[in-house]
Amino acid sequence: QILGSNGDGISLSLGLTSDGRPAFSYFNISDKSLRYSEWTGASWTNESVDTSLTVLGTVTVDSNLTFTSRSALTFQGNDPHIIYYDALSGRLLHAYRSGTLWSKEVIVSNLLSGGSPAVTTCAAALCVSFYDGQNKDLLFAQGSTGAWSISTIDTAADVGSMSAVASSSSGIPAILYYDATNKRPKVATRNPDNSW
Questions:
Q1: What is the greatest pairwise CA distance in the chain?
Q2: pLDDT range class, residue 112, cuts 50, 70, 90
Q3: Choosing a second label site near 102 at 20 to 30 A (CA), which of 34, 86, 114, 191?
Q4: pLDDT digits (tens, 9 = 90+) for 136-184
């Protein structure tokens, strides 16, 4: 089945609602908008989430690989949450829908390059791994609407340009990420005392 229209589909992120319906977030490369589609059971919706973007950020892993900084989708119940990077303003953003209304907030300002977020739910909060492209560090954010804590996880050389985050049933996060300097994956897990 063909979904979307011309320019849709950059930086896809797939998720499932609490009742098992597929949904995905993505950028439209033509108008630079962030969009969201959800299966209703009979058809696909197509919603504009953020139409204020003018530049799609890129992440350079090495001389052979550069990619568009992705959108990252997860759900709390049937409410979608999308983490994404606004390259023009240098902000990591959180868009979320309640009912039919989309809202957005800033998680991190002055993120001059990078982004490349991954997200999962951690108990009642969201857990986000992302890349600080200026300092070449792996960062982590945890929180919910209006309240976020930011941690630096790894500063060794160039780390975190690609990452994935998961959580245990009790809300303890773990991050798999790429070490571009040594060309290998690394894993960070959070300890019970909140150290990594």
A1: 49
A2: confident
A3: 114
A4: 999 999 998 889 999 999 999 899 989 999 999 889 999 999 999 999 9
